[in-house]
Amino acid sequence: MMRTVVFDLDGTLADTGADLIHAANACFRARGFGDLLDPEADKGIGMKGGRAMLTAGFTRHFGQADEAMVLEDYPRLLEYYAENIDVYTRMFPSAVGAIGQLRDAGYAVGICTNKPEGLAETLLQRLGVCGLFDALIGADTLSERKPHPMPLIECVKRLGGDISRTVLVGDTITDHNTARAAGVASLLVTFGPDGEKVKELQPDALLTHYDDLQNVVAGLIG
Fold first, then answer.
1. Which of 125, 178, 185, 192 is most enclosed, with most CB atoms within 10 A?
2. Mean pLDDT in the chain?
């Protein structure tokens, strides 16, 4: 059974916030409202998903969210995002090399994300990094999504990994709670939208740069 490292995608492996926000703003512009979200300041909202972005934008415009509008615009947001998924999105510095080093050292490597599986796969292909990961679990792959432990456990299973020697690398309380629910080590990055605030969650370790990844992982699971 292999030592296993499972990554979240948005905000952990790749800086996807700007493209997510632009997809929501495209919906707002189509209604004549203009851009209601800021690509930088509102990245944290983007990490919470399409419905959260639409809800936040409509709340700013109307003073409260219009659920009917959210439901109506959500498919449009996904369509726009799929077509423009990698305009601004980039892998975080040194991530590709660091993951290659993990693989060379004998770790199994996969992704567990709350992004729909099809969109996650498209993004990985566009970024040219599909070959780095041997399993991908998205929000709609199974009947549950993070923070339920099922997606993480299934990812480790598909990798042929050992759940007792697994690290989940993420950037939010959702990832932290998923790791805790599955009984695996929680490693949170400090360069995601929540920045240094993730320290308050008291994860097993923090990652400030991908150059440090292998050493930090080795300290957690050997």
1. 178
2. 96
